Amino acid sequence: MKALRYWKMTAMVIAAILVVSCGSSRGLGRKSGQLQDEASETTKATTAAKAEIAAKAAAVTDSLEKEAYLQKVTDNAQSTRFITSKLKFTVELGNRQMTLTGNLKMKRDDVIRLQLMAFGFVEAGRLEFTQDYVLIVDRINKQYLKVPYAQLDFFRHSGVDFYMLQALFWNELFQPGKSRLTERNLKKFTTDAGVDNDVIVSFENDVLSYRWLTERETARIKMANVLYNNYLRGNYQLNWDYSNFKANNRKMFPMDHKVSFSTPDKEVKLEMKLNYVDNDEDWETRTVLSGKYRQMPVDEILRRFMSL
Known about the structure:
Elements: H1 2-75, E1 82-93, E2 96-107, E3 111-118, E4 122-130, E5 134-138, E6 143-147, H2 153-158, H3 162-169, H4 183-186, E7 190-193, E8 198-205, E9 208-215, E10 220-230, E11 234-248, E12 251-262, E13 267-274, E14 294-295, H5 298-306
Parallel strand pairs: 6-14
Antiparallel strand pairs: 1-2, 1-13, 2-3, 3-4, 4-5, 5-6, 7-8, 8-9, 9-10, 10-11, 11-12, 12-13
């Protein structure tokens, strides 16, 4: 009997220990699950925070890379005040084409001049752009056109002014209405990857869009495009291609320029091939005409040029 009571007591003690152990295990199981959930939530929050920080860092990096690249493009601009050269000039209007030799003379922030020669030594015509006006001279027929930019349809609709023309002739970035590009101006430009490792630089301004195709490695401008898109007036577009770069005062300058102006009813194509690049300062920067010249409409001037 004593042995039986002993085994009963032992069994009860063992059972009590098992009950307590099981209860403790279940309690520990709940606490462990809660801890795991809390750890999972903490891990998720940490991961999200890290992702947000990484995204912000990437955005900053992209922004810095964009600004650095745009600065590299602007650093390619010529440091000299004068650029001069002899050139071969071709103009195409409709099915008519004319090729002349001539001279290109430019002074930064002052004037751009194209002198076109007939027979290699007689000046047949002249194009002169200043901050205030456009001058087209027909030497052969003693006539000219001198007007503000706003009076020429293409310039008015496309927003082209002297500083934009200067940037196009000098192979530089520009912003409409600005004579200089500052760091603040550059922040308004965007960059996108193009084909063949090129970079497209863009700027939007209401109905006008501006694009530059640049070479990623050198940050050199290969093409500039200005587009005015209006469903009532139609499209006005300027496209300027650059090639055959040569050194000028440690900066590269394009020797070949291909330009096309298109309006809803006509297209004019120009091509300039420079013989060399010089920095001659010894020339008059303004054209003075005698009383023998008479003013004519721009279409008449172009028609006379094409008949030379």
